[in-house]
Specification:
This protein has one domain. The protein has helices spanning 9-38, 47-58, 80-98, 103-134, 136-148, 150-155, 161-178, 181-195, 203-212, 218-244, 250-260, 274-284, 287-297, 299-314, 324-330, 333-339. The termini are far apart. The chain is mostly helical. The protein has 16 helices and no strands. Pathway: Protein modification; protein glycosylation. Its main location: endoplasmic reticulum. It is an enzyme of class 2 (transferase). Belongs to the glycosyltransferase 22 family. It comes from Musa troglodytarum.
Length: 340
C-alpha cells in the first residue's frame, strides 16, 4: 500500500523565506501594475518620453522620422530614460508586433519596465534602510503604507522626468542612510545632470550633513561630484546631440529656462502652504499625521523634514510629482519611532 509523503518542512520554509524576501515587492508591484493597466493613457507632461519610446521602438535608427524634430516642446528633454526603457522592453514589444497586437500593449510594456526599475530602487531603499536598521515589523509598516499611498505607485510607471530621477534619488537616500557618501553624491549628480536639474537642491542639505558628520571631506566631495558630472555630461551630450541633431545638454537648457529666465512659473504656481494643505495630505494619507507627531519626538525625523521643507520652499513652479522624491525619507523613520 503506497502512501503520499507530506510536504517537506524544507519546501514550506523555502516558500516562507520567499514571501519574506519578495512578498512586499509582489504586493507593491501588483498595485502599480493595476494602476498602469486601468489607466493606460498618458497626459501632456508625459508626451515627450512616450513619443520618444515609440520612435525608438518603431523607427529605430531613422531619426529623421522622430516626432520631436517636428514638435520639440518648450524645452528639450533627454532620451536617456526613454532609450533604457525601450531597450529593456524591446523583446516584449517585438513579440507583440509579431502577433499583431495593438501599440497600446507596447505602451504598457515600456511603462511596466519603468515601474520595475523604479520599484527596484524602492526595494533597495526598503531593505538597506528600513529592514536592516529597524527590522521586519517596521518594514511591514513601510510596505503597507506605501501600498495605500495612491500617488507614489500611480506615478511609478508614468514616464515623467521627475519619475526618471525618482529611482536615482531613492538610491541616493539608501546610500546616504547606509553611510556611503560617494555613492550618494554620484546618484544625486546623475539625477541632476541627466534627468532633473531641480535635484541639485538636494545637494545643499544632504551635502551639509555629510560634511558636518565628517562622512566626507570637502576636497573628496568635490572630486567625486566633478568626476561623476563629467561622465554624465559626456553620455547625455553624446546621446542627445545625436537624437536632437544639434549640440545639446538638455538639462542645462531646462535649468536656464526655469532658473535663470524664471519662466517655469508661466505654467502655474501654488502658494507655499499648498504642499501641506493639499499635496502632502493626498500623498501620505494616514502617514501624514504620524509624520507630524513623530517630528515632535524624534530629532532624526526633524532633520529629514528640514531637507524636505528646504526642497519644497525653493521650488516656485509646482509640479505635483516633484514631491514624490521627498516622500520616502518621511516614510520610514516615524514607523520605527511608533513601533519600537
Amino acid at each position: 500500500m503506497s502512501t503520499t509523503a507530506p510536504p517537506s518542512a524544507s519546501s514550506s520554509s523555502g516558500f516562507s523565506k520567499y514571501l519574506q524576501d519578495y512578498g512586499w515587492d509582489l504586493l507593491i508591484g501588483s498595485i502599480a501594475a493595476f494602476y498602469a493597466i486601468m489607466v493606460p493613457y498618458t497626459k501632456v507632461e508625459e508626451s515627450f518620453n512616450v513619443q520618444a519610446m515609440h520612435d525608438i521602438l518603431y523607427h529605430r535608427h531613422h531619426i529623421e522620422k522622430y516626432d520631436h524634430l517636428d514638435f520639440p516642446g518648450v524645452v528639450p528633454r533627454t532620451f536617456m530614460g526613454a532609450l533604457i526603457f525601450s531597450v529593456l522592453a524591446s523583446p516584449l514589444v517585438l513579440l507583440m508586433h509579431a502577433i499583431h497586437l495593438s501599440k497600446i500593449y507596447s505602451l504598457l510594456a515600456v511603462r511596466m519596465m519603468e515601474g520595475c526599475i523604479v520599484l527596484l530602487a524602492l526595494r533597495f531603499f526598503r531593505i538597506q534602510q528600513v529592514r536592516r536598521k529597524f527590522g521586519y515589523h517596521v518594514e511591514a509598516f513601510f510596505a503597507i503604507l506605501t501600498a495605500i499611498q495612491f500617488h507614489l505607485l500611480f506615478y511609478s510607471t508614468r514616464p515623467l522626468p521627475n519619475i526618471l530621477a525618482f529611482g536615482l534619488v531613492n538610491l541616493a537616500y539608501s546610500f546616504w542612510f547606509k553611510g556611503n557618501p560617494y555613492a550618494t553624491l554620484r546618484c544625486l549628480t546623475c539625477a541632476t545632470i541627466v534627468f532633473r536639474c531641480d535635484t541639485v537642491l538636494l545637494f545643499g542639505p544632504i551635502g551639509i550633513e555629510l560634511l558636518l558628520s565628517k562622512s566626507i571631506s570637502i576636497s573628496e566631495a568635490i572630486k567625486c561630484c566633478i568626476s561623476s558630472a563629467l561622465l554624465c555630461i559626456v553620455f547625455t551630450v553624446l546621446l542627445d546631440t545625436a537624437m536632437w541633431q544639434r549640440i545639446l545638454w538638455p538639462e542645462l537648457e531646462v535649468f536656464w529656462f526655469n532658473s535663470v529666465l524664471n519662466r517655469s512659473s508661466e505654467w502655474g504656481t501654488q502658494s507655499f502652504h499648498w504642499y501641506f494643505t493639499s499635496a502632502l495630505p493626498r500623498s501620505l494619507l494616514v502617514a501624514y499625521p504620524l509624520c507630524l507627531v513623530s517630528s515632535c519626538i524624534s530629532h532624526l525625523v526633524c532633520i529629514l523634514l528640514f531637507y524636505v521643507l528646504f526642497f519644497l520652499w525653493i521650488l516656485v513652479h509646482t509640479i505635483f510629482s516633484l514631491i514624490l522624491e521627498c516622500l520616502n525619507s518621511l516614510n520610514s523613520h516615524f514607523y520605527a519611532k511608533i513601533t519600537i
